[in-house]
Amino acid sequence: MSEGPVAPSMTSLMEGYYVVRLLDAFHHEGLIERLSAGATVDDISNERGYAPARLAALLDYLSVRSDVVRKTAAGYFVDMADPETRFALHLLDQYAGAYGPCLNSVPEILSGRVDGAALVDQARHAAAFACADRDRVDEDLLRLLAELRVDALVDLGCSVAGLLIEYALRHPQARGIGVDSSPSAIAAAQRRIAENGLSERLRVVRGDLRQVGALLGPDERNVVQCVVATNVANSFFGDDDGAQIDGWFAALRSAFPSRIMLLGDYFGSLSQPLDDPVACVRGLFHDVAQVLSGQGVPPCNLVQWSDILVRNGCTPIRAFEGNGGDMRRFIVLLQL
């Protein structure tokens, strides 16, 4: 039998829990940013009324058991220019911040007394992708858009508009519209678009991704050459009969008939045998976050995704598989 992910010891799990809780508390309170700006233990203690010895003890621990906090002869420091540090903060914002409230309400979610989706902290979710988008824009998607010579696109689930901005900066003729349901993400996207001088070519709209046809006017929809949706489709598997994902594709085909689409997402791990060696650790706990937040577990391979596309009248053209961000991912080029 093949070996899947190795289960860590309970001691390791408990230590990881403490490290994450401490880092998230420091991050949420702005202390990580203060350390990155050169603040000392005394500076922070004076500003916040903290006990210096206790603060130093916790920072000592984090410097030994994480890569985020570093201890030098001059004191404690966080290197915000380090991509790995920013990725760590992305994970904190996403899993401890955005999905953390769901973990605090497991019995209520399981019993149906609470809707897990309503507990997700949308501001922290937007912050997670604002941090990640600084240096993790999907180069494969950018290359495919360029190869397809796309000049007008709509990005569904655009988050903070990282893909739109980068593509517009590289291709002066490109125009695009982003759609996202998060007010925090839309606000950040508008700010970033303006900062990059792209307000004439890019705009973002807040709304339900299942109703994109109503969010954009006929003239806007008609000029769209390509629909992009990454890390979006995985949210439509909270039911057992496939009605959510089928309804979404029906809405897309109605709004953008016969248009090409780039669909990118991750493969679920809990929907396959857990002794499979390709089951990724992050994929497993992301699946758990999806279950708790009512999004469900997406398909585990391209065959299952192709079945969904075909039954919804879509035509798969090309498909790519790989790993990214510690998860198994794919991109499918299809015709709606």
From TrEMBL:
<dbReference type="Pfam" id="PF13649">
    <property type="entry name" value="Methyltransf_25"/>
</dbReference>
<protein>
    <submittedName>
        <fullName>Methyltransferase domain-containing protein</fullName>
    </submittedName>
</protein>
<keyword id="KW-0808">Transferase</keyword>
<keyword id="KW-0489">Methyltransferase</keyword>
<feature type="domain" description="Methyltransferase">
    <location>
        <begin position="154"/>
        <end position="241"/>
    </location>
</feature>
<dbReference type="GO" id="GO:0008168">
    <property type="term" value="F:methyltransferase activity"/>
</dbReference>
<dbReference type="InterPro" id="IPR029063">
    <property type="entry name" value="SAM-dependent_MTases_sf"/>
</dbReference>
<dbReference type="InterPro" id="IPR041698">
    <property type="entry name" value="Methyltransf_25"/>
</dbReference>
<dbReference type="GO" id="GO:0032259">
    <property type="term" value="P:methylation"/>
</dbReference>
